[in-house]
Write a structure and sequence with these properties.
The chain is about 40% helix and about 25% strand. It is α/β, with parallel strands linked by helices. A hairpin with a 2-residue loop joins strand 9 and strand 10.
Length: about 300
Amino acid sequence: MNETMISLDDMRLFAVVAEDLSFTRAADRLGMPKQTLSRRIAALEKALGLQLLHRSTRRVRLTEVGAGYARKCAELVLLAEEAHREVSLNRAEVVGCLRLTCDQFLGETLLPPILTEFAHRYPKVRMELSITPRKVDLVAEGFDIALRVGETQDPELIATRLGPAEIRFCAAPSYVARFGRPDRPRDLVDHTCIAVVEGSARPKWPFLMGGAPAWVPIEPRLRVNNYRIARQSVLSGLGISVLPAIDCGQEIEAGELISILEAYLYQPGSIYLVKPGRRYLPARVRAFSDLVVERFQIQPG
């Protein structure tokens, strides 16, 4: 038997002939010429090395082996159709598990309202969110989407720019009233700095100096690996820190925070939505991507 010559379509044709026991009726159902159908079944028998049908001028009958083969063909065709429906549903309907990854800031500030809205829109989707400072390998680790600051050079990924990752150097009015306002980056040595850092590396803050970007090392009074704690410490008047503009703009406008060192502001990059570069993405991935882009388009500023 030459198994490579047997296709699921051949099995489907035989299952219809076996059900109708008539090449004429089967050909009508299948929408193909009777002669073509007869040749296909004959080729199937040749590939199997078995006679599946008894043919006469008046009728078609199944052989014993043909009857058993017809049952298996019908079962396989049904399984294939069911698999196709499931795959088509996954492509068209927003269902399944959406796996996301981002850093701590994006996970604590930007994502929660988006996740809430997405959950309300698409109740059939489960979500998994991994908060990590490292750049996760989306393809190897099975993630659908990453939100990142900075571009990606990986040709297997598609990156959509969402907006600038703008920052502000901030202090509370109570801190400025007690210790004054630094006029230049070098003045920070005389101030209490709060830095969000991972590990033991010395933190560096980005400044625009002489028209060029410069990453200046600082000696923080408080090192913390939790962005929310750093932000709250600034609001309470403990010291100065660098905060994402999108998460401190309202406080600056309300007078709860003061933006300092504005002449030295350097914007270190942009926020990107990154996803695998597969041609066919599940509907849940496309729906979440569209929602994130939609939310960023209406962000103030």
